[in-house]
Amino acid sequence: MSVNAESSKTTARERLYLFDTTLRDGAQTNGIDFSLEDKIAIADMLDKLGIDYVEGGYPGANPMDTAFFQKKRTKAAAFTAFGMTKRAGRSVENDPGLQGLLQAQSDAICFVAKSWDFHVKVALATTNEENLDGIRQSVAAAVAAGKEALVDCEHFFDGYKANRDYAVACAKAAYEAGARWVVLCDTNGGTLPDEIEAIVADVTRFVPGDHLGIHAHNDTEQAVANSLAAVKAGVRQIQGTLNGIGERCGNANLVTLIPTLMLKRDYAERFEVGVSEDALSKLTQFSRSFDELLNRAPDRHAPYVGAAAFATKAGIHASAILKDPRTYEHVAPERVGNRRHVLVSDQAGKSNLVSQLKSLGIAADPSDRRLDGLLREVKEREALGYAYEAADASFSLLAMRHLGEVPKFFDVKSFRVMVERRYNAVGELVTMSEAVVKLVIDGEEHMSVAEGNGPVNALDIAMRKDLGKYQSEIENLVLMDFKVRILNGGTEAITRVLIESMDEKTDERWFTVGVSPNIVDASFQALTDSITYRLLKGAAPAA
Known about the structure:
Layout lengths: L13 E2 L1 E4 L15 H14 L3 E5 L5 H6 L9 E7 L11 H8 L4 E7 L2 H6 L5 H17 L3 E7 L1 H7 L1 H13 L4 E6 L6 H11 L8 E5 L6 H11 L3 E4 L13 H10 L1 H4 L2 E2 L4 H4 L2 H11 L24 H6 L22 H14 L10 H15 L7 H11 L8 E13 L5 E13 L2 E9 L2 H9 L13 E10 L8 E9 L5 E8 L2 H19 L6
Parallel strand pairs: 1-10, 2-3, 2-9, 3-4, 4-5, 5-6, 6-7, 7-8, 8-9
Antiparallel strand pairs: 11-12, 12-13, 14-15, 15-16
C-alpha cells in the first residue's frame, strides 16, 4: 500500500516545475472546441492552481489564438506561446511564424522541433544540420527578445531509438543556445516507463536534469507513469493537461500527477511544486469545474478527484470499513478536496461544507444549526442535477441565503418568452425571440420587453433593461458564455445551464447555474443569480 507523505521529513527539496498544455495540446481533443472566453477562464483557473507555465496556443496560426495573445492572461504563471522553430531557408527576420511568436504578449516561447532524423528528411525536407541550426537560431531569437525559451523535442524517444546521436544533438543544440528547458516528448505515446527512465538517464549526461522536461502522451495508459519515471531519472519539468485531455488517448494528467508528487513520500520528501496545500485541497473542485466548463460529465472513477475515488462497497470488508474507513484509502480524501462515500456522517458532510464556504470567503461556525438546512438543500439540489463545482456564485448565494446574508433586491413577478419564425421585409426567413419580464422593486412593478437573437439573449436584455435604482450597478455586466447540458434523455429531459458573466470594468468573472425540464426556465434561474450576485458584490442597497 502507498505511504502517505504526511509523516515525511522536513528537508531541503528540489523544485519540480509544472507546465500545462491544456489550451494547446488539449484543444486537439476530439469533441473539444475552446472559445476565447473558455481559454481566458481556463488560464485564470490554472494560474490560481499554481501551475508554473500556461501554454496558451499558437499565435498567428488562427484568429482566436492571435487574439488570446494580445495581452498577458496570467498573473503568476509564465504565459507561454507555442510555435515552430525557424523554417529552413528563411532568416529569423523573414519567418512570419517566428516573428509572430516574438511579438506575442507572452513571457516564454515553447518551440516544437524535430528530433527524429526521419522527420527532418520527410516532413521538413531539409538536412540534419539545417534543422539543428534552426533550433539554435530560434532559441537565440527568443532569448534576445527577453523571453524564456523552451524547446519541445518532438518524437524524441522514437528519434533516440532510430538515431541516438542525432536526437541527443537536437537536445544539446537547444540547451547550448540558451533554452531554459529542453523537453523530451513521447509524441506517439508508445514508450514504456523502463525505456523512459533509461533514455532520460542517458540524456542527462549531455543536458543537466534541471533543464530537462518530459511531455508524455497516454496511448498505452502510461503517461503519468512515464512522467514519474522521467522525474526519477532526472527531469525537473513535467508537461501535461487538466484531466489528461489531448489528441488520441490524451496526455499526462496533471490532476493525477499533482497529488502524487505532493502526497507520496518518495516524491514529497525530495521535491516541491508550486501548488499550495490550500490549492491542493481544491483540486477536486478544479477538475470538476473544468469538465463543467467543457460541458462534459466528470469521470466518476478518476484517481483522487472522481466521485467514486473514495467510494467503497462494504461486502466482506464491512467490519474494517466500520472501524476505520481509511483502511481502503491511500490518501485522506479531504487533502484533495474530495470526500469518502462509506457511511458519510452529517458531521463529515458539514465539515466539507464549512471548508468550501471558507474558500469562498464566507465565515461559518460549524456549530451553526443553519448549516444543517444548507447541507440538506445542497444534497437535494445535487440530486435534481445542480452542480456547484463550476458555479461558485450560485453556491455563494444559496449559502448566504441560509445564513441570512442576501438582501432582497427585487422580486420576479413573471416572465414570458415568445419565439417567432417569419419572413422579414426583404423576404429573408428569420427567427426572432421576444421576452417580457416583470420585476417588483420597492413595491413598484417594472416591466421590460426586449428582442434578441435567441430566447436567452432576449431574456438577458429584458432583465437588465430596467432595474430601477440598481441600473447603474449593472452597467458593466455582460453575459460572456452560455452552456447547456442535457442530464437525461427523452423529450422530458432535465437541462442544466451554466452561465459565465463578467464585469467589464474590473474583469471579474463568475458562474451561475440553473436546472429545469425547461431550458428557458433554467436559463432564467442562472441569469437571476448572476444579477443578484453582481448587486451583492457591489453592495447595492436592498429594496
